[in-house]
Specification:
40% of the residues lie in helices and 21% in strands. The chain is of the alpha/beta class and 380 residues long. The chain has two domains: 184 residues, 2-Layer Sandwich (Nucleotidyltransferase, domain 5), CATH 3.30.420; 181 residues, Nucleotidyltransferase, domain 5, CATH 3.30.420. α2 runs parallel beside α3, α6 runs antiparallel to α11 and α8 packs across α11.
Amino acid sequence: MLAVGLMSGTSLDGVDTVLCEITGYDESTQVKQLNFITVDIPESLRTKIRKCCSRELIPVDLICSLNFELGYLFADAVKRICKESNVQLEDLSFIASHGQTIFHIPKAYDDYVPSTLQIGEAAIIANECKTDVISNFRVMDMAVGGEGAPLVPYSETLLYGEDHQAVALQNIGGIGNVTVLPKKGDEKKVIAFDTGPGNMMIDEAVRTFYGEKYDKDGFYARQGKMIPELAEELKEHPYFKMDLPKTTGREMFGEHFTRGLLEKYRSNDANDIIHTLTWFTAYSIAYHYKKHLIGAYDLKKCIVGGGGAYNSYLLELIQKEMPEVQVITQEEHGFSSEAKEALAFVILGNQTYHRRPSNVPSATGAKKSVILGQITYPTL
């Protein structure tokens, strides 16, 4: 059957949209990518999303309206990929939409309970596309004691598990996250967690200094040099002291945090700041691998996906930080770095479609396996 996966991540670089053919479920799942596009998020919507994701007081009418505005944007992405692929909307079995994360609280603090909020109204997508929509994947995992993230370990186990060695799957989107697949037959469990910032801090600096969306191929970072004081301050971030499993997001490494650093170190060269922030992403990945993965899993292979996989300088820094691990990209392994997460939600949606569980409790901390997501049916 045909399905579309939608992913709008913390980097806000667009709506990743993948069209797939998928059959079976559980271990019998077979998926083939037919097409992939990224639909740009208009700057007016980006501004609204950033405002909603900040820790400042936000008018509730903004979030209310944005939920529907994103629903229409996501529906447009589905229509575009179907038109480009000569596929009729009525030929789709389902659409799997992650939504846009507004805030994520993996652990309780102050008077706040663990919770998460993704928006992009599924009813709008279902009505516009005349197709079942599976959305809101994270909340059921949290309902049974998990952190609601990461969710990609299920799909990664199906697609990347190897018989003779452990494999680390490192995604570098706005945030970095890793899934470690033990070699088949190993008693160790699949584990997954966020490694810290991915492109988020780098993108904010490039946007501030150059008015560009991202540092293409590490162009600016290559020209800079390390700022030791900034590097030492970043290494002391409290996220490194948190125990596994753990997740993070814009609330820790987003615009508010990054702009504070840019202001504090404004007397330094822009490229030096971008260089140091790029190094910090590499450092945060290597730090967690050395502390939790390399020895415990005899880890020697890391496959990088997400937008960060296209930053060759970032990859060089990661390899330099952990020379004992081979660092390759999804493309070198025969898959698409860009489509990885959208494809993962097609697989998760397929599990929900068949009323099968798809969280990985050893990764999220959930008490049990559960069926993820909510199904919204189109109007008749």
